[in-house]
Amino acid sequence: MIFGRSERGKPPVEPVTLKILVAGGFGVGKTTLVGAVSEIRPLRTEELLTEAGRPVDDLSGVEAKHTTTVAMDFGRITLREDLVLYLFGTPGQERFWFMWDELSEGALGAVVLADTRRLQDCFAAVDYFERRAIPFLVGVNRFDGAPRYPVEDVRQALDLDDHVPLLLCDARDRESVKEVLIGVVEHAMRQGAQRREAVTT
């Protein structure tokens, strides 16, 4: 396990900072997830949904949503004194996807949030990270009243490779989100080690 406490009496070390993306469809809980764990006041770029956006914004299943992220969310969490994660939440609507390339620059890995009521909305994010070989984990956000399915059924529906972790989570709950973030860091480190081993053999 990489997340231990440092030994007492040792001088403080310069923390390693890692960039993690939080992606997924419109209204899946990305802004909520970043806000749930950020130790700083999250930077949000939310705007009110307008009548002009109705023809392009599919609100099915998220009818109560009144705002949308137009650029990014940003937060920070210290997992241990020498390991800090910078979290960048991507915009979910297709017309803002041009931001993804900028946000993904230098990312260690990504969390793709999924909603079982609108599972198809995360296909684009899964495809994006697969094509760019960015390690990612799928977190199924357990909304109140949303259908519950076995993890393997969700994996099959998303056509995920066996090595891609899939976790159930609650984007409102700090401890649940921390488990997801630890999972994506560990997954990305495993992927990196396997790539280095493949190069040297």
TrEMBL record:
The keyword Protein transport does not apply. Signal peptide: none annotated. Keywords: GTP-binding, Hydrolase, Nucleotide-binding. The keyword Disulfide bond does not apply. PANTHER family: ATP/GTP-BINDING PROTEIN-RELATED (PTHR42708), GLIDING MOTILITY PROTEIN MGLA (PTHR42708:SF1). Belongs to the GPN-loop GTPase family. This is ATP/GTP-binding protein.
